[in-house]
Amino acid sequence: MRTVRTLPAIALASTLALAGAATTTTAFAATPAPAPAAVRASLRVPSSPVKPGDAVSVTVTAPAGSRNLTVSSSALRPLTLRPAQDSNATWTGTATVATVKDGGYAVTLTASGPDGAPLQARARLTVQTTAATSAPTPRS
Question: How far is the CA of 7 from the CAs of 3, 12, 88, 115, 131, in angstroms?
Answer without folding.
Answer: 13, 9, 74, 62, 87
